[in-house]
Amino acid sequence: MEDVASTLAPLVRRLLGGTLPVRLEAWDGSAVDPDPGADGDRPPVTVLVRSPDALRRILYAPGELGLARAHIAGDIDIEGDVFALLDVRRHLGEAAEHVVVGPSARDLAPMVGTLRRLGALGRPLPPPEEEARSRGRLHSRRRDSSAVRHHYDVGNDFYRLVLGPSLTYSCAYWADGVDDLASAQAAKHELVCRKLGLEPGMRVLDIGCGWGSFVLHAARHHGARALGVTLSPEQAAMARQRVAEAGLEDRVEIRVQDYRDLDDEPFPAVASVGMFEHVGADQARTYARTVARLVAPGGRLLNHAISRPNPDDRAGVDPRSFIGRYVFPDAALHEVGQVVSTLQSAGLEVRDVESLREHYARTLRAWVDNLQDGWEQAQRLAGPGRARTWRLYMAGSAVGFEEGRISIHQVLAVRPHADGRSDFPATRTWLASDHPVTGS
Fold it and tell me: What is the pTM of this model?
């Protein structure tokens, strides 16, 4: 019988428009090199098909989801630069998209025949344990809490490895002269503080506070009194520990609480950084009305969120996709114009919008570098499947930002007084500050 790699190669070439752009290795030890010239100037990439189960997973879930399941389960792995593999997809264009969307019925027939020859046919396999299993009414408090814990309760040590000492899981701000991740995250926190106009003693709310990095910065550098809320008990525990270690317990409070349940007095400043994506396509107006209620008259809201460029695209993340099943269950990306309209329909006045698209691409590449540098430790901390998930999602997202398929915006809004006054400066000199943009 022909070796496995040689048996698989014609099928891969057919699916990819006639070219084999990577080295293919199979579970029987056989291998096929990339076609001459197919790898261009890219670093070499090897795709390892470690088990016949990989083919079975792809057969029953053709396209992105089946490939992701096979990779997360360890049935398919890669050797080499993950960005080089994603670059293969970019150069293949429509042919690679054909594989991600799913092969046609015409392509499935030879695929089934190949699987039969390799003894890979059988019943569908259960999804890897890392796949989210959302239950309950969409965006109920219980389901939202479950979705957040799926993503964030991976382990604080794992996130510390990936994110670095800043422990900030949102787009950094690579200001002039900033060339390391920790300083870029501090610059982002400072940018948010400036936009919110924080002053000593001012109360600030951080919706989705993560491990507390922003509230710590606001209290330490601006003397603010900060409240951070999260749905993740693991995040809250570490955030409280960091607050205590910084000696800021008199100025910073961390709660495990749904933002919709907050009944505190309105705040002069509200930050929502990397949280709006979890709200969902049908809950945007509820979110806007809630945050508007939490902003005091004359106060400001800074909404920092990933966005989709095309307003005609569907807002929700496809629940059948890799991202929807393994990374951000129940999430949604909103087009920035719709974000502006939604906030204004809730009684807020949008005063400033800034795109940070290139900044997020650079941030994600820094996270991937951290993950790759600590790959063995990452697998020990979170498990091999979760480590593969995060590498694939972060690298793919970096390329998505670089190519403009996704974006990110900071939208700054105020809640006007009853007479229409906003207390907002008439010029952009409010961005100037004597505070440093680097350091912790």
Answer: 0.88
